[in-house]
Structures are given as C-alpha cells and as structure tokens.
Amino acid sequence: MATEMTAFVIESYGDPDVFERTTREVPEPAADELRVDVAASSLNPVDYKIRQGEIPDFTPEFPATLHCDVSGIVDAVGEDVEQFEPGDEVYGMPGGAGRQGALADYVVGHAGTFARAPESIPLEDAASLPVVALTAWELLTDKATVGIDDDLLVYGASGGVGHIGVQLGRWFGADVTATGSTEEKRDFAEKLGADHTVDYTATDVEAYVEEYADGDGFDVVFDPVGDDHLQTAFEAVRPFGAVVTTESSSTQDISALHANSLELGVVLVILPVLLGDRQARIGEELADIASLVDDGVVVPHVDERFAFEDVADAHRLGEAGDFRGKILLVNE
Ligand SMILES: NC(=O)c1ccc[n+]([C@@H]2O[C@H](COP(=O)([O-])OP(=O)(O)OC[C@H]3O[C@@H](n4cnc5c(N)ncnc54)[C@H](OP(=O)(O)O)[C@@H]3O)[C@@H](O)[C@H]2O)c1
Question: What are the boundaries of each domain within the chain?
Fold first, then answer.
C-alpha cells in the first residue's frame, strides 16, 4: 500500500487558480471511520465559497483538500465499523468542510457519513448526489410536508438542489411550479417533471401565484437560493403554508411569518460533519436516496465532467452559473 497520494489543495484563499496539485500522506481511518479510494467528487457552491474565503469557519486546515461529495470504493475500515467492508461501493459527504475533503486519491470520514452507492448509475455519477440530494430531501421531508396535489414552488429549479427538489416534489404528487432565469433552464425543469415553469426575472410574484396557486399562495415554497428569493417566498406562500430554505443568514423582513402564520424551515446539511456528531442521519438519508435512484424516482443530471486536475475550470463554470444540474469531478 502506497503511503503517499495525490491531492488538490489550497494553501490560501483566492480565485480558481489557487488550487495546487500536491502529495499528501494517505490518511489512516480512526476507529469509527472509513478510508475510501476516491472515484469522483462534484462541485457544490460551498466548495467555491470556502475557496473564496467567504466561510472561513468551514475551511479545513491549510493546506486544505476541498470538496464535500464523494463516491468510491471502501479501502480500509476502522476497528469499530461494522456496516462496511473493503470493496464496498459507497457514496457520501465525509468532509470538505470542517475536515479534509475528497479532491484526493483517498478520503477518510465517519462511517455514518456514507451509504452504499446506487446500483443503477455509474459509481462516478453517484458523487453528483450527496450534498444536493440530502439538502432537497431534508427540505421536503424534515422541514415541510408535501402532499398529493399540493402546490409546490421550486426556486433555482435547474441548479443542483433544485433539480432534485423538482423530482422529489413530483414523486410526492405535488403540482410543481419551477423557476428558471433562461428558456434552457425552464425547459430542463419541465423535462425533470415540473408541471409549470416561470421566468421569475420577467413575472411578478402575484402573477404566478394567480396562475399556478389559485391566487391563494403555494402550500410550500422551496428556496435553495436565499436573499431576494427568500423575501419573495414569503409573498408567494399561502396563509399557514411553509417556506423551506438553505440560506437564512441574510437580513429579511419576517413580519409575513406572523401575519400569515407561516412555518420557516432551514437546512444546514453539512452540520453533522462540522459538529462531528449525529453523522448517522447522513448515511441513513443517503440509503433512502440510493433506493429512490434505483427506483428511477431521482435521476441526477451531470452537465459537465472534469478531471481533478482541471478543478479550476470546474469552479469557473460553477461560479458563472452556466450549467444545469451538476458538475462532476473525476479522479482520473
Ligand atoms: N444550507 C445548506 O445546507 C445548503 C446545501 C446545499 C446548497 N446550499 C446553497 O444553496 C444554493 C444553491 O445550491 P445549488 O447547488 O443548487 O447551486 P447551483 O447548482 O449553482 O444552482 C443555483 C441556482 O440558483 C439560481 N440563482 C438565483 N440567484 C442566484 C445567485 N445570485 N447565485 C447563484 N445562483 C442563483 C440559479 O437559477 P436561475 O438562473 O434560474 O435563477 C441557479 O441555477 C447555494 O447558495 C448553496 O451554497 C446550501
């Protein structure tokens, strides 16, 4: 077994060219951890926000190996790990925030942050799922109840979280209205199963509430964007409805929560990794998500693939926002 591996790290914050190829020691798993031979990772906004220095509390120690999502083959298990063995194909969210991440030949992480990979898609593609699918799942199951024929509004529907949100909403039987800023993004949302699409850049909230939510308001508004979208969500939701979001660290007028007796649910999906606690919920949810993928309910859309050594190009594309679904990074 080699003692050294290739990793792509940042030594300081900066633009996408700050990534460096380096050699690190192959990490040893602790008693409750797995070591995974990395097949692929994917890009999430949290990865470039960490690289930019926007969320220093999430940054792994420098030199920092970034990226949260991973798929690969279990290479070694700690002495207390019973649910996995070497050779298992897994996917998970073991680090990349708070601890070293997946842009390397091997990653170690708490066994609870992994599950067996879906069998019906290539192992590499499974790395497109953890962060976005866990987030969409927690928004729509932990933070809201979405029932048959409920009116569900999905913002950012062509993005990573949104494209899974549309598919889950449809599976719950909701009437899904999806937003997209371009025709291409709206067409994509329709192909994912959205019943209606809205160009929110050219349509007032009252107009799409009137057209797709009987003028009363949506039962649930799914907001993976925050800021202006979160404020608009409070206008688009019906009295006693629910707004679920990934981003509430902005300043908002929350008087609508009181005026309309609303529920507000916020997800921080990486929290178990940051806390080093309650990791098992990640693995349990990923096991459910793998079943949904194998049943054809959830299909991850990989728009572009990059080799690890081209991580700077992947970050540039992600930050420009000119893609649909996910950007995959493959450990070639
Ligand atoms: N709290 C958590 O646990 C958690 C988990 C996952 C993601 N997130 C956050 O949720 C957000 C979405 O994640 P994602 O993976 O879906 O991202 P993504 O794949 O980049 O997609 C984001 C979508 O949001 C829309 N959008 C509207 N305004 C935007 C803006 N100012 N900047 C970027 N996108 C904008 C875009 O669609 P249109 O062009 O149609 O508007 C875009 O397709 C990110 O901020 C991410 O950090 C948080």
Answer: 4-131+270-330, 144-266
The reported pLDDT for the residue numbered 288 is: 98
Fold (topology level) of 144-266: Rossmann fold (3.40.50)
Q: Is the CB of 42 under 6 A from ligand 1?
A: no
Task: Report whether residue 327 contacts ligand 1, using a CB cutoff of 6 Å.
Answer: no
- Burial class of residue 309, CB neighbours in 10 A (0-12, 13-18, 19+): middle
321 Cα nearest atom in ligand 1? 20
| CA pseudo-torsion sign 155, 283, 319, 39 | negative
Ligand 1 in reach of 217 Cβ (< 6 A): no
Omega of the bond prior to 63 within 30 degrees of 0, cis?
yes
256, 145 contact by CB (below 8 A): no
Residue 223 CA to ligand 1 center (angstroms) comes to: 9
Options 3.30.750.24, 3.90.180.10, 3.30.390.30, 3.10.290.10; CATH of 4-131+270-330 = 3.90.180.10
Choice from 138, 246, 319 to test ligand 1 binding pocket (greatest atom count within 8 A of CB): 246
Q: How far apart are CA 43 and CA 323, in angstroms?
A: 12
Q: How far apart are CA 151 and CA 265, in angstroms?
A: 17
Strands (E), 273-314: 302-307
Going from the Cα of 178 to the center of ligand 1, the distance in angstroms, rounded, reads 14
In this prediction, residues 74-79 reach a mean pLDDT of 98
Tell me the per-residue pLDDT of 80-106, one tens digit each, with 9 for 90 and over. 999 999 999 999 999 999 999 999 999
Ligand 1 pocket residue status of 130, Cβ below 6 Å: no
